[in-house]
Design goal:
By secondary structure, this protein is an alpha+beta fold. Among the domains are: about 5-165, Nuclear Transport Factor 2, Chain: A; about 170-225, no CATH class. It has 21 helices and five strands. The chain has a five-stranded antiparallel beta sheet with strand order 1-2-3-4-5. The longest helix has 16 residues, at about 30-45. The chain is globular and about 70 Å long.
C-alpha cells in the first residue's frame, strides 16, 4: 500500500484556511476533461495540474469547517505556495515510482457534485484518491480529496494536524514534534530503524494521531513483519471503524496467512470503490497463495483483458499458465507483450532466465509468424 504518499502529503501541507464563494455546477464532460489532464501530466512527471488542483477558497473553508479553526491570510498564503511549488504533485509522482501509474477509475455524481476517482499505484502498493469538484470563474478544481489510505478527507487530516500544533503542549513536546522533518529525511535515505527510534520519542498523544500512525505503519513495513502487523493492529485499535481498514488490513492478513480474510478485505474494498479491475490482481495473488491456480488464472485473465499493459499482471498470468502446463499460452502472451512494446528486453531476459524453454517457444512462434 502506498503509505508514504499519505504521510508525506500531510506533513508537507500544514496550513490552509477559510472563506468560500458561491460555486457553479460542474458538468460530466468537464470532470472527465480535468481527469484526463491530470492523467497526462502525471504520466509525464509534470506536477503542474496537481499542484493547482485545489480551489483555494473552498479547500480553506473545508479545513476551517473540519477543525473549527481561524487562520490568518499569511498561513493561507504559505500553504498555497507549498502546493504550487510542487509538494502535492511531487508526492503523487514520487509515490508512483518509475513504473507506477495514476489513472482515472471512474467519474460519478454524488449529491449533485461531480467526482473523479483515481488509483495511485507504485512500489508501495495501491491507494485511491476521490476528488470532489467545484467550478469557480470557469475553472474546475477540487474542493477536497478523500484519501482511501487515511480513510478521511485531506481537509480533515490537515485540520487535525493544525489542532494538534495549537494545543498547549510543554515546550519539550513541541520540540519533539519538530523532529518529524528529520524522520522524513531518514525515511528518504532508507534509514528506517533510525527513523523509528526518532518516532518513538514523539509524545504519545502525537503518535496516536492518524497521520503519525500512518508514518508508523510505513516505517514498520520496511523493518520486519512482526512490527508491521503490530503497527497495523495498533491502528485498528485506535480507528476500528475507519473506511480504510479494508485497504490496510490486506497486508496484515496475508502476512498472518489468513487468506480468506485477505480475500474478504479485497472484495469489500472493491465493493466500496464500486469496482476496479486492478483488484483482480490482488485476488489472483491471494488465490496463488491458497494454491488455487484455477481461480487465480481466472482472475489474472480477467485482469489482462481489462488492463492488458499491466506488466506485473501479465507476468503473473504467464506463471499460472506454466503452473497449469499451458506453455503455448504463456509463449503467446509473452510474444504479444513483446510486440506491443510494453515488456522490454530487460523484462524478457529476466523471464527467460527463469523459463529458458519459453524463449524457444517464442522463437518458434516467430518463425511460424513469418
Amino acid at each position: 500500500m502506498t503509505r508514504l504518499f499519505y504521510a508525506c502529503l500531510l506533513l508537507l501541507t500544514l496550513h490552509l484556511c477559510s472563506c468560500s464563494l458561491p460555486e457553479r455546477p460542474v458538468s460530466k464532460d468537464e470532470a472527465i476533461k480535468l481527469a484526463r489532464r491530470i492523467e497526462y501530466s502525471v504520466a509525464n512527471h509534470d506536477y503542474t495540474v496537481l499542484n493547482n488542483i485545489f480551489d483555494e477558497k473552498e479547500f480553506s473553508h473545508r479545513i476551517s469547517g473540519a477543525g473549527g479553526l481561524f487562520m490568518s491570510k499569511t498561513l493561507i498564503k504559505g500553504a498555497i505556495q507549498g502546493f504550487q511549488q510542487g509538494q502535492y504533485g511531487k508526492a503523487v509522482v514520487d509515490a508512483m515510482g518509475k513504473e507506477g501509474s495514476y489513472e482515472l477509475i471512474k467519474q460519478y455524481e454524488k449529491d449533485k457534485k461531480q467526482h473523479i476517482l483515481f488509483r495511485l499505484y507504485g512500489p508501495g502498493g495501491v491507494n485511491y484518491h476521490d476528488y470532489e469538484l467545484v467550478k469557480r470563474e470557469d475553472a474546475v478544481r477540487a474542493a477536497d480529496v478523500f484519501i482511501y489510505m487515511s480513510g478521511e478527507n485531506l481537509s480533515k487530516t490537515i485540520a487535525d494536524a493544525l489542532q494538534l500544533t495549537n494545543q498547549n503542549m510543554p515546550k519539550e513536546d513541541l520540540a519533539k514534534i519538530e523532529k518529524i522533518q528529520a524522520i522524513k529525511t531518514l525515511i528518504a535515505q532508507g534509514e528506517n530503524e533510525k527513523a523509528l527510534n526518532l518516532f518513538d520519542e514523539l509524545p504519545d498523544q502525537v503518535k496516536k494521531e492518524k497521520a503519525y500512525q500512518m508514518i508508523h505503519i510505513q516505517l514498520c513495513s520496511k523493518l520486519d513483519n512482526d512490527k508491521y502487523i503490530q503497527a497495523l493492529n495498533e491502528y485498528r485499535s485506535l480507528y476500528p471503524k475507519d473506511a480504510n481498514m479494508y485497504l490496510l488490513m490486506i497486508d496484515a492478513y496475508v502476512l498472518q496467512k489468513d487468506y480468506p480474510m485477505a480475500m474478504a478485505s479485497v472484495n469489500k474494498l472493491d465493493s466500496l470503490i464500486d469496482k476496479d479491475p486492478y483488484q483482480d490482481y490482488q485476488r489472483g495473488l491471494i488465490y496463488l497463495l491458497m494454491k488455487d491456480t484455477i481461480h487465480s488464472q481466472e482472475c489474472l485473465q480477467r485482469l489482462h483483458t481489462n488492463m492488458p499493459k499491466f506488466k506485473k499482471g501479465t507476468i503473473e498470468l504467464m506463471e499460472t499458465y506454466f503452473y497449469t502446463h499451458n506453455e503455448d499460452k504463456a509463449a503467446q502472451l509473452i510474444r504479444e507483450a513483446r510486440d506491443s512494446n510494453y515488456l522490454g528486453e530487460p523484462n524478457l531476459e529476466v523471464i527467460y532466465s527463469y523459463h529458458p524453454d519459453l524463449k524457444k517457444l517464442v522463437e518458434v512462434d516467430d518463425v511460424k509468424g513469418k
